[in-house]
């Protein structure tokens, strides 16, 4: 799961959204420095990633990239899932201006921006570009997916050049979309149940 999916799987809860989006930038016990609900978001993110990485449908999606990209196939699929989520008519009903997705993106930026003072420095830099370039709403466009592939290749020292990933994405578009359609309702159900458990555990502390 990538940024749009993690934001969506925060169920419109501001602090959960913040924790879910910053989780990859928080190591070990660093999460203890954050308020309880943001910690829940961090833990939710990690649970979602574990569920996603081990799911049979995700393994199928990875298979389209695995020969060329090996361990990086999972990161590529995370980006691809965001593309299909952005174009999911059941989640973001389409209209001429794509207004439901754009509105969700703006709400997400506002929620995260309210916690600007405590964002990890690396995420804060990334969030500036996410917000100003409207990444979340633009994941529906293939061009941004290609840019994301290129950005991943720049950050990953041993990842092969992204050109073949773009070709594989285009070639296997229908198969990857079918994986998303099968997988996303399950991860949404899992995320909701996990969040409810985290909230319940938090009340016991």
List keywords for this structure.
single chain, 205 residues, mainly alpha, 11 helices, lipid metabolism, hydrolase, [acyl-carrier-protein] phosphodiesterase activity, lipid biosynthesis, ACP phosphodiesterase
Describe the overall structure.
The protein is mostly helical. It has one domain (3-204). It has eleven helices and no strands. It has helices at 3-8, 14-22, 36-54, 56-69, 73-86, 99-113, 121-132, 135-138, 142-155, 163-171, 173-204. It is globular, with a radius of gyration of 17 Å. The mean pLDDT is 94.
Shape: globular
The secondary-structure element order is HHHHHHHHHHH
Structural class: mainly alpha
> What is the helical fraction, as a range of percent?
over 70%
Please render the helix and strand layout as text.
Elements: H1 3-8, H2 14-22, H3 36-54, H4 56-69, H5 73-86, H6 99-113, H7 121-132, H8 135-138, H9 142-155, H10 163-171, H11 173-204
Helix pairs in contact: 2-3, 3-11, 4-5, 4-10, 4-11, 5-9, 5-11
Organism: Puia dinghuensis
GO molecular function, one term: [acyl-carrier-protein] phosphodiesterase activity
Keywords: Hydrolase, Lipid biosynthesis, Lipid metabolism
């Amino acid at each position: 799961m990538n940024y749009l999916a993690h934001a969506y799987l925060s169920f419109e809860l501001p602090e959960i959204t913040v924790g879910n989006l910053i989780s990859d930038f928080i190591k070990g016990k660093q999460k203890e420095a954050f308020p309880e609900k943001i910690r829940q978001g961090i833990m939710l993110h990690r649970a979602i990633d574990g569920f996603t990485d081990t799911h049979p449908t995700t393994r199928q999606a990875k298979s389209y990239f695995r020969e060329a990209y090996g361990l990086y196939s999972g990161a590529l699929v995370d980006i691809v899932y965001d593309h299909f989520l952005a174009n999911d008519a059941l989640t973001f009903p389409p209209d001429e201006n794509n207004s439901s997705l754009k509105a969700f993106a703006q709400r997400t930026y506002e929620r995260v921006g309210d916690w600007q003072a405590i964002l990890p420095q690396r995420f804060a830099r990334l969030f500036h570009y996410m917000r100003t370039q409207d990444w979340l709403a633009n994941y529906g466009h293939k061009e941004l997916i290609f840019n994301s592939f290129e950005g991943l290749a720049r950050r990953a020292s041993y990842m092969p050049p992204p050109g073949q990933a773009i070709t594989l994405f285009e070639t296997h578009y229908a198969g990857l979309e079918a994986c998303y359609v099968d997988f996303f309702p399950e991860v949404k159900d899992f995320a909701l149940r996990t969040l409810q458990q985290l909230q319940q555990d938090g009340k016991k502390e």
